[in-house]
Amino acid sequence: MSLPESARRVSPKNEAARAPSVEETPVKLNIYDVTNNPTVQWINSLFANQYSPVKFGGIFHVGVQIGSREWAFGYKPSGTGVFWTPPLFAGAHHFRETIDMPPTTLSRTEIAEVMTSLEAKWSGPSYSVFRRNCCHFADEVCELLGVGSIPEWTYRLANIGSTAAEDAGEDPGEVRFQKLT
Prior knowledge:
This protein is of the alpha+beta class. It has a single domain, classed as endopeptidase fold (from Nostoc punctiforme) (Alpha-Beta Complex), CATH 3.90.1720.30. The protein has helices at 5-8, 12-18, 38-47, 108-121, 134-145, 156-167, and strands spanning 25-33, 60-66, 69-73, 82-85, 94-104. It has a five-stranded antiparallel β-sheet with strand order 4-3-2-1-5. A hairpin with a 2-residue loop joins β2 (60-66) and β3. The relative contact order is 0.18.
């Protein structure tokens, strides 16, 4: 004798009671216009208007907020380029928008291990405007946290710049740091 379909279904209430307790930590992608320069803000609003469903790209700084810390990567002449600030600490950049990523199910200890390994891997001198910047770092952080990739439009112009430099016979990896004023 077979049970009816309704008797075989597990109700959400019963499923939740049987599921192991998994800690979830919110992950957010905080996107900034690079610098507080109004021209950069105008370019970004033109090519990646925060209210538009379609975005081409722009000149962005990106940080990954995990709980109460926002992690990012930048140029330093020595040591790690990985650093954290309180969330939405604008500093030299103009805050633009936050994208909620799925929460990570990694434990606090696992998150700390991921960030420690990235501090060793992402040295300050290895920063490259086109090939190894804060957007590339944020993408790797999100992948390692198991929350997926960051939106491609956040680093699309860096990838275009890398291709253009290669086509011009330049080494895009040599474009390390430029101050935008």
